[in-house]
Amino acid sequence: MGWLDANLVSILNGLALGGLLFLIAVGLSLVFGTMDVLNLAHGAVSLAGAYVGVAVLSPSAGFGDFVVALLIAAALGLVLGAGLAAMTHMVSGHLRQALLTLGIALVAGDVLREIFGADVESVPAPLGLDGSIDVLGNAYPVYRLVVIGVAAVIALVLYLLLDRTQLGALVRATVADRGMVEALGVRSDLVLAGVFALGAALAAVGGLLAAPVLGAAPGLDDTILLLALVVVVVGGLGSVRGALMGALLVGQVQTVGVSLLPDQASFLLFGAMALVLLVKPRGLFPVQGVSGANP
Amino acid sequence: MPNMPVCSRAVSSGRRRACGVGVVALGVAMASVLAACGGGSLSSDSGSESSESVKIGLVVPASGVYEPLGIDLTRGFELYLEQHDGKLGGKDVEVVKADEGEGPDKGVPATTKVITQDRVGAVVGLVNSATALGVKDTLTSSKTPLIVANAGADTLADGSKYIWRTSFTNGAVGEALGAEVAKEVGGEPVYLMASDYAAGRESVAGFKKSFEAAGGKVADEAYTPFGTTNDYQPYLSKIPRSGAKAVYVFYAGAEAVNFVKQYDAFGLAKDAPLYGAGFLTEGGVLKAQGAAADKIKTSLHYSDQIDSPENKEFVDAYTEAYDAAPTVYSVQAYDAAAVLDQALEKADKTDGESIAEALGEVGEIASPRGTWSFDDDHNPDQPYFLREVQSTGGAPVNAILSPLND
Fold it and tell me: Which residues in chain A touch residue B39, judged by CB atoms under 8 angstroms apart?
C-alpha cells in the first residue's frame, strides 16, 4: 500500500505520457502497416503541430481557442500527410523512401527554425485546465488528466473506424489484396494516401497536445521521432493495439521505471525495448489483418 | 502495385519479421544522424592585410541547441566593436566567423580552421566546454590565445598560457549562492538536482561546498540524464518525501523551461522555494517559463536589471541596436572585446604570441556587470548577484536583490 501510495502519481503520469506517445506513434505505425513506408518526417509533422500552438495561442487562450488550434493542426497534418504520401508514392524501396523522408525532415526542421527562431517556445495549457488538483494528497496538473481522456477517446474512435466501418474494411482490404480492390473499381492509392494523411493529422494533433508538456523547440522533432520508433517497435509494427500497448509501456517505463531506478534512467528505455524484442521479436502485438503481414 | 525490393509483401512472415525490424533499425540510425546534422558554416574570407589591422576569430554556435547563445554572444561582441569604430587597441579589426555547432565534432574543426587557415591573432567565443578542451593543444602549438566567452568547465583555463575566460566557472556560480541559501532556510534540509553532465555536477559541487560550510544540510541529490529527460515528475515526487524545504538546481536551455514549468505544475513551488544557477532563468528561457518562474532565486554575475550607470548605458545601446534586452552571454562577449581592446593596446605586434603576452598585463575591466579582473587561473574575479524573478508590469525580469560576496 505504501508503495502504491508513493508511486500513484508516477503511474498516472505514465498514462498521460503514454497517451501522448500513442497519438504521435499510431500514425507512424499505420503508415508502415498499410503502405510499408517508414516515414522519418513524422517527428517534423508533430513539431509543426506544436508550433501551430505557438503561432495561434496567446497565454490567456481558453478552451475554445485550443480546440480551434487543434483543428488547424489537424488540417495542417492532413495536408502534410497527403503531400508526403504523394512524394513517397513516386519512389520505391525502403531505403529510398527513408532517405526521402529523412531529407524532408531535415528541411522541415530548418524551415521551422527559420520561422519560429531557435529559442525554446512554450505553449500554454488552455485556461481553466492549467491548474493542479489534489490526487491522494499529491498535486497533479489537470491538463495531463485531460490528455489521458482525449487519448483514450481517439484510440477508441480509431479502433472502431478501422474495425467496424466500411471505410476501415476498405483500408484493410487494400492492405490485404490491392489488386482485388482495384478490380472492384476502387483507387487504392487514394485509400492509402488517406491513411497517410490521417496518420500525419494525428501526429500534428499529438504534437500540439504535447506542447504544453514538452514545449516547442528545434531538435524536439528528433526526440519525438525516436520515441515514436521505440513505441512502434515495442508494440509491433502496423497495429493500433500494438501502438497503444507500446505507448503505455514506454510511458510507464519513463515514469515508474525512472522513479524506481533513477540511477539507470538513461538505459531504461532502450533496455526495455531490448527486453521486449528478446522475448517477442515482432513486438508485443504483431500485426494480424490490419496490415500487410498476411500475403 | 509498387515494388518493395527490401521487403516484399509476398515473402513469408518469417522473412518479413526480420525485414520490419531491420527497417526500423535503419530508421533509428537515421534519427540519430538527424541529431548530429546541423547548419552550414558562416566563415567570411580574409581581405587585405596591413600592419595596423588584426584578425579575430569569432567561433560561436550558429546552429543547434545553443544557437540563441551564439546570437547573444555575436551581438555583444559586435556592439563593442561598433562603439569603438571597428577598432580594438587602435587597430582595425577583421572578424572571421565560424559556426561552433553543438559539440566538439563541429566546434573543434571550426576553431582549428580559423587558426590554421585564416591565421587569426586570437579566438573569441566557445560555448561548449568539451570543444574548448578539444582545441587546447591546437592553441598551444599555434601560439594563439583563446578568450572563452562562455564555456564554464571548472579547470578549463588552469595552467594554460593561451586560455583566458571572461565568463564564469560552473563551480563559482553555485558556490556564490550556497551560504545565502543556508541562511535563508535556517537549518532545514535542501534537495540538490542537476542535469547529469559536467556543468551540472560542477555547479552542484560548488554550491554544496559553500552551503555545507555555512552549516547547511543536504536532503538528497538527483542527477537527470542530460538531453533526454523531458518529464521530471519521477524525480519531483521524491522531493516532498525527502523532507526538503528548498531545492537547488542546475538546468539550462530547453531543460530549464520544462523543469521550471513542471516544478510549478506539480505544486512544489509553493512548499519548497526553488534556487538555481542563474542560467535557469536567463534570456529566452525566462519568457517561455512565464509565470511558473515567479520568485525563483538564482546567482549570476549579471542581470540587465543591475542599477549602475555603466549597465544602463550598455542596456540602452544594446536594446537600441538589436531591439532585445542583453543577457549574461551578451556581456561576456562584450567584455571579451573589452579585454582584447586593452591587450591590443599593449601588444607591440598582432600575432598570437604577442597578444597572449599582452593579455597577462590586462588590468581591471569596467564592465556592465561591475568591475572585474582576471585571477591567477585566468578566470574572472567578479561580483555575483542574488537575483529573483519578478514580474512587475508585464514581462518577468531577474531583479537584483543583493550582491553575493564570495
Answer: 110
Q: Do B26 and A293 touch (CB under 8 A)?
A: no
For residue B4, name the pLDDT band (cuts at 50, 70, 90): very low
In sequence order, the 6+-apart residues with CB closer than 8 A to the CB of A149 are: none
Helix (H, G, I), strand (E, B) or coil at B175: helix
| Residue B321 · residue B79 · CB < 8 Å | yes
Burial group, residue B52, by CB count within 10 angstroms (0-12, 13-18, 19+): exposed
Domain boundaries, chain A: 16-217
Q: What letter would DSSP give residue A289? A: S
Contact A120 B284 (CB under 8 A): yes
Cβ pair B358, B147 in contact under 8 A: no
- A262: contact with B, CB 8 A cutoff: yes
Higher pLDDT, B167 or B23: B167
What residue spans of B347-393 are helical by DSSP H? 352-359
List all residues 6 or more positions away from B253 whose beta carbon is below 8 Å from its beta carbon.
A120, B65, B66, B68, B285
Cell of A17: 505520457
Per-residue pLDDT, averaged over A54-65, amounts to 88
Whole-angstrom Cα distance, residue B31 to residue B33?
5
Cα B396 to chain centroid distance, Å, stands at 21
CA distances from A295 to A33, A173, A191, A291, B11 (A): 13, 12, 19, 10, 7
CB contact under 8 A, A119 and B238: no
Q: Which three cell numbers stand for residue B308?
A: 549602475
By Cβ distance, the residue of B39, B234, B290 closest to A59 is: B290
pLDDT number for residue A237: 81
CA distance B38 to chain A (A): 9
**Is pLDDT larger for residue B36 or for residue A210?**
A210
- Residues B231, A106: C-beta atoms closer than 8 Å: no
Say whether B53 sits in a helix, a strand or coil: strand
CB count in 10 Å sphere of residue B22: 13
The CA distance from B8 to A19, in Å, is 33
- Distance from chain centroid for Cα B307: 24
For A38-53, the pLDDT digits (tens) are 899 999 999 999 999 9
Q: How many CB atoms lie within 10 A of CB B87?
A: 15
Q: Looking at chain A, list the stretches that DSSP marks H as alpha helix, in order from N- to C-terminal side.
A: 2-35, 42-56, 63-90, 94-116, 142-164, 166-176, 178-183, 188-214, 220-235, 240-252, 258-260, 265-279
Other beta carbons less than 10 A from residue A120's beta carbon: 24
Considering only CA atoms, which of A294, A38, A264 is closest in space to residue A178?
A: A294
Q: Enter the ipTM.
A: 0.87
Name the residue of chain B whose CA is nearest to A6's CA. B237
Q: What single letter denotes the amino acid at residue B87?
A: K
Residue A278 CB contacts under 8 Å (≥ 6 apart), including other chains: none
Mean pLDDT for the stretch of residues B308-328: 95
Q: Give the lowest-confidence range in A179-193, A194-208, B99-113.
A: A179-193
Q: With an 8 Å Cβ cutoff, are B7 and A36 in contact?
A: yes
Give the three cell numbers for residue A106: 531535415
Strands B163-165 and B146-148: parallel
User: pLDDT of B128-154, one tens digit each?
Assistant: 999 999 999 999 999 999 999 999 999
